[in-house]
Amino acid sequence: MKIRIISAGIYGLEASAENPHGEYPIGHEIDLGKHDAPAGWSGRYEIISGKPPEHSEFVTGTAAERGTESKDQSDQPRRPRPASN
Predict the structure, then answer these.
(1) Average pLDDT estimate for 39-58
(2) Which of 6, 24, 35, 43 could cross-link to 28 by cystine, CB 3.0-4.6 Å?
């Protein structure tokens, strides 16, 4: 499986003067071979080629179409701000 880093926080490179923490740069592509990406990398990479992890779930459509839309409070009437003394 080949992946592309899309978010910060994936480490594993040799530390250097330019990269003292050993973090992979965003946009870097990694070939994992037959291995899956570690669970901690979830949401920080996109699959370029190969099969996704066995128990992964693809998300398609909008939250409204899936019926999982969150009930945020943006449609609720707002309370007025308390008067300052």
Answers:
(1) 79
(2) 24
